[in-house]
Structure formats: structure tokens, C-alpha cells
């Protein structure tokens, strides 16, 4: 969209709450800022159908009828130390390129904090990118710690070429077709598969695969061992909504012992990679053997993907299955780390998350605003 130029000042820009008629302008601005198209179904799922907010929690910046900025929030229930509280995760923060460096982020942030100072939510938490991390700190967010992203490289030749070239997956197709590359891929694939078979625990478990997430089963497994650390509260209604994201298709693997579900793992295929978005129970060590069996089953099905990734506390013994964090060598030497720095800001004096440590939280990708 084309913006009207108003000089360096922002006196004409109004900061206000999101209104029903703003949706199309929001999606247009999203495409401009992030170079990615989002559908009305995605917006409805993420903001209007969110069961933890009775309104669309977005603040917008408007200049003479044009939407030029948005500060959006992803509502969640967080559980920790036995208490369940509403928390908002800032996300999809946007300022049109023509309006940057004019203080709009600060103004939208101030309005957002002011709006939610009394009542729900109890606190904010998020993983801001490099463009907004300083602005969050300036408005009272405190840094908690870093959460790594784990990679398992299925196609070492293709992935290394992609990272070294600084290109996307499609750009490295020129490496395909050579005898050496094909042989290297075949060898790497054989090493992975044989290694996975040797590592997979030999236990009496029934493994089931579901194309549609079984929400009630997932809640049952979650409740078998609930961690004390802060995390999104998992219920059947949460899973029905959360895994209805229209941008992804989710496959669920469930391990049963004597007919009872004891562990689960949820995946989503995204371009050239397979994401492990959830493992249950969240107290991972309580069913480590069952989770390793599920992981081995997933890796058998992941042969067509160049990468398998897992965020946070998702895998038992990740290095055993050749998952490596991007925060340490060898991966930190080959790519820009995708690890995320967690920031938090209390709104309720009783929340007391600002002074927590990273050990007080446990994350899977399902705790993030997108999966």
C-alpha cells in the first residue's frame, strides 16, 4: 500500500484500539512489513477466536485513515507453581517502512501497557526480534534468559550449502544432481536411520499416528505429569483451538502402554523442515523412554525433510539423536543463531515473573505465538 508522507513528525498519527473494520488494513500492512501473505482465516483463528481474550487485543497507529502501525498481543493461559493466570505475548508488531524511526513503536507500547494495567493479563512475555528488543527493555520488560532452537540436519550437503550461500532452500537446488552430492546424501541418510534404530528403546509400546490432533488424548497425557515451571496451560479446548492454525497441518504421534496413552509428540511440516512443536508430558523425564520411541518413529517419517527442528525443552537427550543447539558450536559457526531471548513484564504485582530465571520456564514451540 502507498502511504501519505507527513514529514518527520507524528502529530497526525492517532494511536487507538483495533476496530472491526481494521482487519483488511492489518493484513495488508502485514504483507508490506513481513513480505508474507496472511489470510482472513488466520486472523480469525489467532485473534477473534482466541478463547483467552474477549476482544481483539491490538493497538493500531492511524494516519488520516491509513493503518501505519500495529502492536498485537497473543492471549494465553500460563500455569506455574499450581496457579493459572492469563498472560499476553506481544507479536506481529508492525510499523510501515515510511513511518519508522518516529517513535510509533513507543507510543503504541505505552498505550498497550496503559490499556492492560488493571485486570487481565497478569503479565506480558515474549521473544522480541533485534528490531524491537531495545524498545521492550525501555518500556519495562526485563531479560530472563535465552532459549535455543535445536537442529537435526538430515541433508548435510544441501543445508550447509544453503547456510554458506545465505540463500533459501530453493536456491540450493543447484547442488542437487551431482554424483558426489547424491552419494553424500545417501550415506548421511543411512547413518541417521541406522543410528536411530540402534538408539530407539526396545519397550512394549503401541505407537499410533493421527492426522488430526486428538485433543482429549493430549490433555490426558499432559495431566500425567505437570511441571512446576511456567508454561502454557494445556487443556483439550486449548489444543482444539491452538492446533487449528489454518497455516499448518499437524500430525500427532501417541505412545500407549497397556492401552493407556502415556506420551505424545506433535509435528508440522514447514517448507524444507519438520518442526517438533509439542512433546508430552511436559515433565519430559517422567516418560523419557516413551518419548524416545515416539521421536524415533517421527524421524523415520522425516526422511524427505532437510532439517528437523525443536524449540526449548522438547526432547529427551537431544544430542543422542543428533539435535544440536544453534547457540554453540558446531552450528553457531555456520549460521546466525535463531535462539530467542525471553523478556517479561509484570502487570499484576502478584505475578512476579520479571525477576524469574530461565530455569523457571519450560517451552515447546507450542508456547510461541506461531508454530
Automatic annotation (TrEMBL):
Pfam families: Acetyltransf_9. Residues 13-165 form the N-acetyltransferase domain. One of its GO terms (molecular function) is acyltransferase activity, transferring groups other than amino-acyl groups. This is N-acetyltransferase domain-containing protein. It comes from Natronococcus occultus SP4.
